[in-house]
Structures are given as C-alpha cells and as structure tokens.
Amino acid sequence: MRTPLVIGNWKMNGTLAEARPLASGIRDGLKRPGRVEVVVCPPFTALPAVGEILAGSPIALGAQNSHHEASGAHTGEIAPPMLVELGCRFVLCGHSERRHELGETDEQINRKVAAAIRHGLTPVLCMGETGEERRQGLTFTTVEGQLRAGLAGLDGGSLAKCVLAYEPVWAIGTGVNATPAQAAEVHGYLRGLVSEVGSKEIAQGVRILYGGSVKADNADVLLAEQEIDGALVGGASLNAPGFIAIVRKAARGAAARGDS
Ligand code: PGA
To answer: Is 235 in the pocket of ligand 1 (CB under 6 A)?
Structure first.
C-alpha cells in the first residue's frame, strides 16, 4: 500500500568533483528502480549540478535542511523557495546531527516542517533517541515528544504530506543498526501516534523510514518489516553500487510483502 522510499543523505560530503560522478552513477544504475521512490540529498552547493544530472530520471532531489522563512535577514541560511527553484521536492527536518551539534529545537523543527509544506516540499521529520535514553527506558517518551512537537499545529491534509524517519542516534554512523524488531516496535508506536494526532487513515498512509547504519547487507531484513517503509541512508549512500543495492532491496521487499 505504501510505496517504499529510499533517501540518500550525503551530509557534508560531496565537492562538485565528487558529487557529479556519484549522482551519475546512481542515475545510470537506477534507470528502472521498480516500485520504490528514490531521493538524494546532496549538500546545498551541489544541488544545481546534481539536479541537472538527475533531470529526467526517476530520482528526486532533496535538501538536508532549510529555514522556515521564505526570505530575510538570516545570514547563512537557505529558504524553501530557493530549494524549490533548484528542483528539490524533499527536505530533511530535524536530523539528529542538527539537533545535537547545532542545538535545533523541536519548536524550530516544527516551523521548518510547516514551511516545507507551505512551499510544496515534502518534509522528512527525523526523530530518535540517544543510547543513554534507550538505556534509561526513555525511547518511546523521546520519540513521542519529538513527533508531537514536530507535527504540532498541522492539519490532516498537511500531516498526510509528511514523511517520518526513525533514526536512533546510537545507530547513526556507528555500524550498529537497530534490529528489525527494535525498529518495527518504534515505527508501530509512531504510527499509533499519527493516528492520534491525525487519523487512522493518515497513519496508514504515512511512510516511516528507518535510518542508522543501513547498508546493502542489512537492508533486506530491515525492509522486510511491514512497519518499515524505506530507509534514510547516510554513509552507504556515498557509494553508488551500495546505494543502488539498497534501493533494489527496498523494491524487492515491497514486492515480497505483497504491497501493491
Ligand atoms: P548512517 O546515517 O547511514 O551513516 O548511519 C544515517 C543518517 O544520519 O541519516
């Protein structure tokens, strides 16, 4: 029912010299990706070049962040209309590296989510607990707070346009992924919350991605879970064959689950 979605988050990687061959490799390897949606999120500086390379391909362009205002005196920031102009269709909101390194708050993230929707971008709201929070039994409390705050004030139509990503902080860039069962448990919980803040119907349609050390060799078991609608891939998205393999597994997982 839900089309799987695989997003490559290049983070602060990709000079033009690196980004161009990576984007071309992904495009050439995914001419017919199957029943899966694919997005790449290069750094801002590479968006125009990567957008040009992906033009006419089934792969969509996304940004890693945006400001909530449309323009103004915000030195160093990038506004949603600037991203739209470059062909972006998706934007990550509240990635844990921004929450933890830059102190982004739930309130700021909520404004970014709302602004993305206003400008026709699909926001990908990222949530996840730290290792310490998991040890203290605070996983559900943490993600619940992030979800409720991140989606606050959105009407049903807007909620239905969001993508959610569960990315446990302890799994990001560590090589230690959440087990399929751990991820599915949190995804199920998040879907229940969407049902509460929106409706059952919205919850059934919303895609919840898993992120945190997803690689070609663990993607199939993660993506076989009914609750996991795709992947947000960091490190492994910087290698075209590895990223392509993950996308293929997402498409096959959906076929095996009988999604149509
Ligand atoms: P990782 O990053 O795949 O390198 O763990 C995931 C993310 O931060 O989106």
So the answer is: yes
